[in-house]
Amino acid sequence: MSGNNARINIFPTRMALTNMKLKLKGAQTGHSLLKRKSEALTKRFRGITVKIDELKRTMGQVMQQASFSLAQVQYFTGDISYQIQEASKTAQLRVRAKQENVSGVMLPAFEMYNEGGNAFEFTGLGRGGQQVQKAKEVYTKAVETLVELASLQTAFVILDEVIKATNRRVNAIEHVIIPRYENTIKYIISELDEQDREEFFRLKKVQSKKKERAAVEDAIRARNAMEADRNGHEAPILQAAEETGQLNVLDHEDEDIIF
């Protein structure tokens, strides 16, 4: 069967009815939990969307300042790219990942940190030192913003997939599983009611047959009694007396008593 009339094919018994009610209760509980999970994830998803929009706007401004700062450095110090390449042996800014649990969903979070000393402390000593330091701070801020944006974008993609899957499960439970259990329970109850009505009708018929049989037997007894009276048989009272062994007091002779 399909649609709202879909139900599970099961033999209608009291035990089956109890099991289906337990399954319906579990489905309703699961639906409630998944619904709350979906709402919590959706709330977090919207918050991340707002933060991403803000960070993208901030990123545009930071990159604009960084480009302007780099132009100032090149204007005051000339080409210092070879000095940077010579001084940079290892990365000073590093990124580490951690996980955050949001309603059972593990979201990665990236965090930037400094490792090692300042590799550019002597850059720009001749001229343009202030511009170089400013450019370094601005680009550090740009990298930090990029790391935060990458963390939010990753969480955005993961949450989007999880919310879609959770909503599909919620809709499946709400529109397929729960109606199927409810229709099965209605079917079992209707079948059990029909069985009860059939049993009640059968008992009434049996009782009616017993009453008819008792009436026939009473009629036969009455007819036999009338025929016995007609044929001159003894009265029922005398027959009962003889059957119990009691004699007539007039026919009984008392023994002599010696004083």
Characterise this structure:
- With 259 residues, the protein is mostly helical.
- It has a domain at 12-188: Helix Hairpins, CATH 1.10.287.
- Helices cover 70% and strands 8% of the residues.
- The protein contains four helices and two strands.
- Strands 1-2 form a two-stranded antiparallel sheet.
- Strand 1 (93-102) and strand 2 form a beta hairpin.
- It starts with 13 loop residues before the first helix and ends in a 15-residue tail after the last helix.
- Mean pLDDT is 79; it is low at 234-250 and 252-259.
Topology of this protein?
Layout: H1 14-77, H2 81-87, E1 93-102, E2 105-114, H3 129-230, H4 236-244
Antiparallel strand pairs: 1-2
Order of helices and strands: HHEEHH
Average pLDDT across residues? 79
**What are the segments in which pLDDT stays under 50 over at least 5 consecutive residues?**
234-250, 252-259
The CATH architecture of the domain at 12-188: Orthogonal Bundle
Integer-rounded radius of gyration? 50 Å
Q: What's the multimeric state?
A: single chain
Helix content: over 70%
